[in-house]
Design brief:
Layout: H1 8-21, E1 27-31, H2 33-45, E2 57-61, H3 74-77, H4 83-93, E3 99-101, H5 105-116, E4 126-131, E5 138-141, H6 151-169, E6 175-179, H7 190-201, E7 205-210, E8 222-224, H8 227-253, H9 256-275, E9 283-287, E10 293-296, H10 302-317, H11 320-334
Parallel strand pairs: 1-2, 3-10, 5-8, 6-7, 6-8
Antiparallel strand pairs: 4-5, 4-9, 9-10
Helix pairs in contact: 1-2, 1-10, 4-5, 6-7, 6-11, 8-9
């Protein structure tokens, strides 16, 4: 029931994922049963619609709904029969192996942390956001889960981000940078200066302080910052495609010559814009909890939901959490 266009987009995305998976996994749809069944029927009626076989999905009834105005703790305090809470308890019980939601981000994060618990040795879970570059995408952590962080938390973000990129993109030793206001070790605030020393003493492939201009170069695999800075960067980045689209349309409308140029360039522009489209990655991982939790954009389309489900499947298959646990234990043993 999460997202601005739920349950239609969520159910449609699940159907797309099941059609593409061809029996690789099953999906549990959590929410008001009658509402879900109506959305499934709508999917089947659409042109080219698809109704998954009965043994490819299950419905878990959850009558409560958390909206975007509810508090972050609503899922575990006042709406314990919501799809977020019920779904996460199913994950904790092992009934399902991963959890995907486009609902209230704060509620998902709080409920996942309280219900699933944290990986041993992790002070705070983190949200990682993939940023496109000319090469492999770069993971920015934290992207908004923790607005105030201690230096140790930043180190944990770097460790978890490094493991995620190594596991998901087959990068043997991901390059990790600490976001600051200059490359020199002397630059930054008290938090980043203290964190820098922790990174220098770690076994990460740490390249040092990096600046905002370095994020898109493709020379980094992980950029570490607190959630306040990360969320500002993320939201700014979301506005860039719309800005370029508006400028391109304005250019095309100026005169006939520009219109002709725009028609020729349109295909290439679409290819570039596709890389900037959040739908391609689907959602962002919540790293550091005892489970697999993928959080999606509130405006997620069926395609985005489909890719969120595929992302969860991949994180499960590649045992990302086990690698994080081992790495944190190794770091603590060296301290």
């Amino acid at each position: 029931m999460g997202g601005d266009f739920a349950p239609a987009n969520v159910v449609a995305g699940a159907c797309l994922a099941l059609r593409g998976a061809a029996g690789r996994f099953r999906v549990a749809l959590v929410g008001p049963e009658d509402t879900i069944r109506a959305a499934l029927a709508d999917c089947a009626r659409q042109p080219g619609g698809f109704m998954p076989p009965d043994d490819h999905y299950t419905i878990i009834h959850a009558p409560d709904v958390i909206d975007m105005h509810d508090s972050a703790t609503a899922a575990v305090k006042t709406k314990r029969r919501s799809s977020i809470s019920v779904g996460l308890y199913e994950h904790k019980a092992g009934t399902v192996h991963g959890f995907v939601s486009a609902g209230n981000t704060g509620a998902v994060m709080s409920a996942a942390t309280l219900i699933l618990g944290r990986i041993e040795g992790i002070g705070r879970p983190t949200i990682g956001a993939l940023v496109p570059t000319p090469k492999t995408p770069c993971l920015m952590v934290d992207a908004g889960a923790n607005v105030d962080c201690r230096p140790r938390h930043l180190l944990e973000f770097g460790i978890m981000g490094s493991i995620y990129m190594s596991s998901m993109f087959n990068i043997p030793t991901p390059r990790v940078g600490l976001l600051s206001i200059g490359e020199e070790d002397s630059k930054g605030n008290a938090q980043s200066l203290a964190a820098l020393q922790l990174f220098r003493s770690s076994t990460l492939n740490f390249v040092g302080n990096v600046e905002g201009r370095d994020i898109l170069t493709g020379d980094l695999d992980v950029v570490v910052c607190d959630g306040f800075v990360g969320n500002v960067i993320l939201k700014f980045g979301e506005s860039v495609p719309k800005f370029f689209k508006a400028k391109f349309q304005g250019f095309a409308k100026a005169n006939l010559w520009n219109t002709a140029i725009a028609l020729v360039a349109r295909k290439g522009l679409r290819s570039v814009m596709k890389e900037l489209d959040y739908q391609e990655h689907g959602g962002v991982p919540l790293l550091g909890v005892n489970g697999v939790c993928i959080i999606g954009h509130g405006k997620s389309t069926p395609r985005a939901i489909m890719n969120m489900i595929y992302r969860a499947e991949e994180v499960i298959q590649k045992s990302v959490n086990s690698h994080i646990q081992d790495s944190i234990a190794h770091t603590d043993a060296q301290a």
